Automatic annotation (TrEMBL):
It comes from Bubo bubo (Eurasian eagle-owl). Keywords: Cytoplasmic vesicle, Endosome. GO terms for cellular component: early endosome; late endosome. The keyword Cytoplasm does not apply. This is Spermatogenesis-defective protein 39 homolog. The lineage of its organism: Eukaryota, Metazoa, Chordata, Craniata, Vertebrata. It comes from the Eukaryota. The keyword Iron-sulfur does not apply. It is found in: Cytoplasmic vesicle; Early endosome; Late endosome. Signal peptide: none annotated. GO terms for biological process: intracellular protein transport; vacuolar transport.
């Protein structure tokens, strides 16, 4: 059979980004919408409000290669796959209470303002493929000669039941407005997304749009299906007319804003985004549009300058590490990585300066440090890494401080093949003793393991570790010296 339908619960009242999410995916769960809204807002500028260090993996997933990680094309698979699995988990409780659900896939919004930096999520409705209309409305495609068990006397309820079983039946016999609306109500009551959309296609073809819009306004489930269908089918004009009729001005603005994805010329896209700033968005969404325009404008300047430097061979970093992709249309976090890689020492007054980007887009310290660390470690610029974590107090004393936790610093450095001497320095700074020992043992930072067992006065563990170092090495001599030290009061 086909995909199954949504429970016939109307969505909640309209809002800006959350309303966009709701109308694209007619979800039955208001709590789910709020969760998606929080995720969407966290994704704006690709900067998440991080609470745990466990979330840091997503923030450092950025590099500069032939396939630019973090680009819009790259983000489609990355974000859509994680969103789908996450959403399926959240919907598991809902599915227990119903045996039939919609053809519309349970994914996050196919478009939201957060995608302007994170990347565009692409929903692909299986029933809207090349053969999609057949799947939705097979009765519109087959000649009467092929009809089996054909009858013109099927009631709306019987017609819907037959469609649910995949049987062929004609909708043309429903000519009056009342009959068509009864048919639509029966389709919605059947909770079968394919049938609902098939009936909507029939009504769209046979009713004047003013009448169709008026009747759908009081049928929220059917309305959500039609909005989603129009988005997937690319019927932008009809979609905008429908949203204007519903007085959803912010959604009209969002739909118009989405058109920037179809503009390939970067200068034309910049001008289009500049015009979008004046559309009737909420105050918060207007700031997101402004950020998108500012970022693209900044990228155009950086790209032109760097292309000139690379061509002229005037920069050592470009000669040693040639660019493999353009910075244009990249998300903010990728642009920051690029800036930390190629323009790390530039003054804040230049557009390509990392500190300028941090200040302009209000990048949190945690995100900035992660990105800068990944970029400078890839270049093996260990002095820059050291400076990134060195702070000085008012007395002039220096100490190391990391907003992301030194255990994360160690892991990032190790992935970039940092030498043991560099690793050991940061392993020592891990406060939790068990974590420090695990990291030191894992990455063969022998001195740290030896010093930690000495501080713990653990003679047994230190003696056992002696078997793990090379015989005759400096580490073995160090262990023997500590074990023979009569001034240490061992705990065991």
């Amino acid at each position: 059979g086909g995909h199954r339908g949504l429970p016939s619960r109307p969505p909640r009242s309209r809002g800006s980004i959350s309303n966009l999410i709701r109308t694209v995916v007619p979800s039955p769960c208001t709590t789910l919408h709020l969760l998606l809204l929080k995720e969407s807002k966290r994704a704006v500028n690709s900067l998440r409000d991080i609470v745990d260090d466990d979330d840091d993996d997503d923030l450092e997933r950025v590099s500069w290669s032939g396939e630019p990680v973090g680009s819009i094309s790259w983000s489609i698979k990355e974000t859509a796959s994680s969103s789908t699995s996450s959403l399926e988990g959240r919907d598991s409780g809902l599915q227990k209470g119903s045996s039939s659900y919609a053809a519309l896939p349970k994914q996050v919004s196919s478009y939201s303002l957060s995608s302007l930096f994170k990347g565009e999520l692409c929903l692909s409705l299986s029933a809207l493929s090349d053969t999609g209309v057949k799947n939705y409305a097979p009765e519109l495609r087959r000649p009467k000669a092929e009809y089996k068990d054909y009858s013109s006397d099927w009631s709306p309820k019987d017609t819907v039941r037959r469609m649910q079983r995949g049987k062929v039946c004609s909708l043309e016999r429903f000519r009056s407005l009342q009959d068509k609306l009864v048919l639509l109500d029966e389709a919605v009551a059947g909770h079968d997304g394919n049938v609902i959309t098939a009936v909507l296609i029939f009504l769209k073809r046979t009713l004047r749009r003013e009448i169709l819009f008026r009747e759908l306004e009081v049928r929220q489930v059917a309305l959500c299906h039609l909005i989603h269908f129009l988005k997937e089918a690319g019927e932008q004009k009809l979609l905008l007319d429908l949203l204007r009729f519903l007085d959803r001005t912010e959604e009209v603005a969002l739909s118009q804003y989405r058109e920037h994805l179809n503009i390939q010329d970067v200068e034309k896209r910049r001008e289009f985004l500049k015009g979008c700033i004046g559309l009737p968005f909420s105050a918060e969404d207007t700031s997101h549009i402004q950020d998108h325009y500012t970022l693209l404008e900044r990228q155009i300047i950086i790209e032109a300058n760097d292309r000139h430097l690379e061509t002229a061979g005037q920069s050592e970093v470009f000669r040693k590490y040639p660019r493999k992709a353009s910075i244009l249309n990249m998300p903010l976090v990728t642009t920051l990585f690029y800036s930390c890689f190629y323009h790390y020492t530039e003054a804040e007054g230049t557009f390509s300066s990392p500190t300028n980007l941090k200040k302009t887009f209000k990048i949190p310290d945690k995100q900035y440090v992660l990105t800068a660390l990944a970029a400078r470690a890839k270049l093996r610029a260990w002095d820059d890494v050291d400076a990134l974590f060195t702070t000085k107090n008012w007395l002039g004393y220096t100490k190391k401080k990391a907003p992301i936790g030194f255990h994360r610093v160690v892991e990032i450095l190790q992935r970039n093949n940092a030498p043991v001497q560099v690793l050991q320095e940061y392993v020592r700074l891990v406060e939790d003793v068990e974590t420090r020992l695990n990291l030191a043992t894992k990455y063969k930072c022998h001195d740290v393991v030896i010093e930690t067992y000495k501080d713990l006065k653990d003679r047994i563990q230190l003696t056992a570790y002696k078997c793990k170092v090379e015989r005759g090495s400096a580490e073995e001599e160090k262990i023997n010296s500590i074990l023979n030290n009569m001034q240490i009061r061992w705990k065991n």
